[in-house]
Every structure is written in C-alpha cells, then in structure tokens.
Amino acid sequence: MSSHLNKYWLLIIAFLLVSLISGGIVLAVKQSRHKPVEISLSQTVSIQCEDEIYIGGTVVNPGFYPLREDDSIETLIQAAGLTPDADMGKIKIYVPKTGEVSQPQRINLNRAEAWLLDALPGIGPDRAQAIVNYRNQYGSFHRIEDLLNVSGIGSTTLGTIRDLVTLED
C-alpha cells in the first residue's frame, strides 16, 4: 500500500511542478506584453519669442502683453489680472500671426490698479494712485475727460494717454 501511495504523491508533485512552471511562463509572456514603452524626445530647439500676446475675457485688463521665452500662461494671466468671478475655462488668449500689426493695449480706467496706470506715459506712481483714489472716492469714470478732475492731470497729459485708455469692460 505504501508503494501505491508513493505513486500518487509522485504524480501530485509532478503535476504541481508542471503547473508552477507553466504558470510562470504564462505570467512572463503577459508581463512582457504590458511593459511600458519608453519614449525619448530629442532635444528641441528653443524658440526665441519676443513678441506680444493678447489676453481677453474674464480678466481685469484685457489687451496685449509682452511674451518672452520664459513666460508661462499663468504669468501672463496674472499680469492681466483675473476678475473675482473668473472662469478659467473662459479666458481667451490670442497669439497674433507673424507680421500682424497689433493695436496698443487700452487700460480700463475703472478697473486698472495703480501699477498698471503707472505704465501710461506721463502718469507715474503718484498720478496713478491719484486716479485710483479719485475712482474710489467718486465712483467709476463715465467719460475719459473725467480724468481732468484728478489732481495732477491736465489737458496735455489727457491728450497723451487718450488713445491708451478705455472705460469699457
């Protein structure tokens, strides 16, 4: 009886070894099919971009902004200033075609912060802050000529910046 039992143990062990080996082979084949493919990108040529990009939509100051090689979209959007109810899915970015002539950016007098108004020719930090203070005290500008009511801004300065400012949203 003992030899009969040894026969069965020998068959069971042989069956287990064959199962183990065939299972290992199946796993190895499946594993080799699902290996991740490594993609190697060649060194790309850096684009020298010193141009302008238009940002519009739900930003405080829509218009053209200088675009440099190290700028990111987030940096440009921060420069334009998001409105409190901004939906990032509705921000418009326009990159002009080569040779396309762009209109100068118009700064919204009713929304621009002092640092942006300071960029206008003949304004400077003190007059820019005076514009913001006037707007805070008396409310939105209704006409561009209302700038004449701001301390330090006369008809010459108004004439210089008239085409660079707007009251539109």
If you had to describe this structure to a student in words, what would you say it looks like?
The structure is a single chain. The protein is of the alpha+beta class and 169 residues long. Among the domains are: 51-94, no CATH class; 107-166, DNA polymerase, domain 1 (Orthogonal Bundle). Helices cover 39% and strands 11% of the residues. It has five helices and five strands. It has helices at 2-33, 73-80, 114-117, 124-138, 155-161; strands at residues 51-56, 63-67, 92-94, 107-108, 165-166. It has a three-stranded antiparallel β-sheet with strand order 2-1-3, covered by helices on one side. The protein has a two-stranded parallel sheet with strand order 4-5. Strand 1 (51-56) and strand 2 form a beta hairpin. The termini are far apart. Residues 44-49 have low confidence and may be disordered.
The average pLDDT score comes to 77
- Please give the oligomerization state of what you see: single chain
CATH superfamily of the domain at 107-166: Photosystem II 12 kDa extrinsic protein
Order of helices and strands: HEEHEEHHHE
Estimate percent helicity.
Answer: 25-40%
Number of strands: 5
**DSSP summary: helix tally:** 5
Furnish the topology, listing elements before pairings.
Elements (H helix, E strand, L loop, with lengths): L1 H32 L17 E6 L6 E5 L5 H8 L11 E3 L12 E2 L5 H4 L6 H15 L16 H7 L3 E2 L3
Parallel strand pairs: 4-5
Antiparallel strand pairs: 1-2, 1-3
